[in-house]
Design goal:
The structure is a homodimer.
Chain A: E1 2-8, H1 10-13, H2 20-32, E2 35-42, H3 46-59, E3 62-66, H4 77-84, E4 89-91, H5 93-106, E5 119-121, E6 125-127, E7 136-141, E8 144-149, H6 153-161, H7 163-171, E9 178-185, H8 190-203, E10 208-214, E11 217-225, H9 229-247, E12 251-253, H10 259-269, E13 274-278, H11 284-290, E14 299-305, H12 308-315, H13 319-322, H14 333-347, E15 351-357, E16 371-378, E17 381-389, H15 394-413
Parallel strand pairs in A: 1-2, 1-3, 3-8, 13-14, 13-15
Antiparallel strand pairs in A: 4-5, 6-7, 7-8, 9-11, 9-12, 10-11, 15-16, 16-17
């Protein structure tokens, strides 16, 4: 089956927003084994939406629209497609009831146009919208499948994973449904991970093993067709065991969560606490840890000591360690160790992590851009210190340094 | 003139990357007054690239390609377009010399395919690539204009703003070139800013005043056509003066820089230093400040005190202030003030900022999600404390809180 994704919205053509919907839908279709040959963006204009439908039909079996299902006069997708198919629009009563309930529960007068969100194309399957009011549609007409999704990502994504996923399964016919699991890796680069797994990736067809890009992290998707989830899980588990034998020390989760969230979970499960002392990363590690809801139980806090004076004032590191003839300097193994140990002690925590180094653009203390010292202190154990030589922009060096020390922490806490 | 943007790359169709190029190019075209009616994404496949050219020609006068100019067998854009136009490919000698120089200066053997990057379509204008090896092309054939840009954003963007911009000006004919200036605002929401400027926006046509979305910040682009930059600057300056009269306390820059960068510049110019104490924002403020290269002279550092114990241990705030019967609590005006003042004192800085509040998902100390106390301490002046009631997700509340206190700091330091 060949699909085309058609995003509808003038704001995309003006460059006001980026088309993340096309990416999300493409990723889902890739997982279903559906080929995407074209993505199109068209504005809120009836004539050009119709043109996009005609062009799409000439080159795909499945047209997936996102956007244009809302209440305003600019929301045209259903109207244009219904006219193109010579079908009417009918009210989907459960959706209408949901809209009326919402407004009456808020005690707000409902503008009439909101009813438009409950309309579906005659003879189509309504697709529930868990996160909004505009109902989705699935239609088969003259051999072409049409899927209508809302535009706001917070509505589109749950529909694509819920009611639209079920509809797509039915469209794919009596094939066994595809099951897949995302594996998340840390402390290893994408090409390095692929090199270690290449024999496995090329040597087996079921389950398939595919690298998967998700916001700069290294992930792999393991997929198989099976009639039940139990059967799929058995097959996927067996493949995951093979992967673990090769790269188990990097596989931190079998679901789509960031490394910092897995670390927080493991700290929580074992009743332990972390504190941080950051120089090169400037608060990025603290920011990532505290981005996880409820992390205050596991992350006590930390310091951002961007100058020698602050390393002395906040952490009590002697100035003689940091500067002057023969001093190791702020960017050194021993300073990294002291930073992690002092942060742990001040917070009365179980772990302390630190990062000190040169993010660029220019060298510091005569040390090159990309040189980073990281330390992991733990209660009752010797402090681990290690050195990294990172490449990339200032921001990438900072992010890689943070993810690296979080990987070491994960190894210690898992 | 009607344009269509055609991004070429199978990685886009697989959802491995998001099509930020289409957004960037669309924004630029909007500024030039060129309408974009469609954006298309097509894979690295000769037949389908040809189809995209044919479809594009039927509905646009200007086709802008991005991607497929590189050295590999997957890079097909030039080959397919040349064949479609019945033209040959010829070597652009300056580009070839650049490629050969680069490899010889590195002492690396050049793989033959790299020469492909110096090929241009016969009768086309070569467009210099300042940031990479693949030369761009501008072509007029049978009434349609074609612009070929590289795919990597770090090459595409400078070309779109440099050699391709000049080519587009020539395509637009003897119209006067468009000049524009971006104005950046802080401490005000987009709809609020528009409401204050609506009279001005609707009341004048030259220069035009248009809201402009750029990564969640509030911006306005002022544009005018003029034969010289001096003339354009005179006209734009006059409009900026009118805008300043209405919303001058929010206009922090007349170029595309983030608020934190402007704050760093002003601190640097006046030889002053900042320190921070963050609770709700968890290090985000420190992370933004230190993301600006060379900020260690102006940002001494800060603390992330996510627990009461850390507020006591790092800042010396009495526990009786933070908890127990009758205590103001960690989330209070007086704690915010103490945090900012103590951070400033410890760092021996000129300014101290602090944020304490409830980011959610659930309330804390019986206080609602979105309640934030912010403080700005300054040497020799009384500490300013204010309250915010923010809406949005956990991340949005944190970001808005940080941008708000940075706006206050900007007002104090400008």
């Amino acid at each position: 089956m060949k699909a085309e994704i058609i995003a509808v919205g003038t704001e995309l053509l003006l460059g006001q927003i980026v088309n993340t919907n096309a990416q999300f839908i493409s990723q889902k279709l890739a997982a279903y084994g559906i080929d995407v040959y074209f993505q199109t963006v068209v504005g809120d204009n009836a004539q050009r939406i119709r043109q996009a439908i005609e062009t799409g039909r000439s080159r795909a079996d499945l047209l997936i629209f996102t956007g244009g299902l809302g209440p305003t006069q600019d929301d045209l997708t259903k109207d244009v497609l219904a006219a193109y198919l010579n079908r009417g629009l009918v009210i989907h009563e459960p959706s209408m009831a949901k809209i009326e309930d919402l407004f009456s529960s808020r005690g707000v007068h409902m503008v009439e146009s909101n009813r438009r969100q409950a309309l579906i194309i005659e003879g189509s399957e309504p697709l529930a919208n868990e996160a909004g009011l505009a109902v989705g549609n699935g239609i088969l007409a003259d051999g072409t499948h049409y899927l209508l999704l809302p535009g706001p990502p917070k509505e589109m994504k749950p529909m694509m994973e819920g009611s639209a996923a079920l509809w797509l399964q039915s469209v794919l016919g009596n094939e066994q449904p595809l099951h897949s699991r995302l594996l998340k890796f840390a402390g290893v680069g994408e090409s390095n991970l692929e090199a270690k797994l290449i024999g496995l990736i090329e040597g087996q067809n079921d389950p398939t093993i595919a690298p998967y890009a998700s916001e700069g992290e290294v992930s792999i998707r393991v997929s198989t067709k099976a009639s039940t989830s139990e059967e799929a899980n058995r097959k996927i588990d067996a493949t995951v065991e093979l992967i673990k034998e090769l790269v188990g020390e990097h596989l931190y989760a079998q679901e789509d969560i960031p490394l910092e969230e897995q670390v927080i979970r493991l700290l929580r499960a074992s009743g332990r606490k972390l504190a941080s002392a950051e120089s090169i990363s400037g608060g990025l590690l603290a920011e990532l840890m505290t981005s996880i809801p409820g992390s205050s139980g596991e992350f006590a806090g930390g310091v951002v000591t961007y100058t020698n004076e602050m390393k002395h004032a906040l952490l009590g590191i002697p100035m003689s360690q940091l500067e002057g003839p023969g001093a190791p300097g702020a960017i050194s193994e021993s300073t990294a160790a002291l930073m992690a140990e002092r942060a742990m002690a001040i917070a009365n925590a179980d772990f302390g992590v630190s990062l000190t180094g040169v993010a660029g653009p220019s060298e510091a203390e005569g040390k090159p851009v990309g040189l980073v010292y990281a330390a992991l202190a733990q209660r009752g154990k010797p402090t681990e210190v290690y050195t990294m030589n990172l490449r990339g922009s200032r921001q990438i060096i900072r992010l890689r340094a943070v993810k690296s020390i979080l990987h070491r922490l994960w190894l210690a806490v898992r």
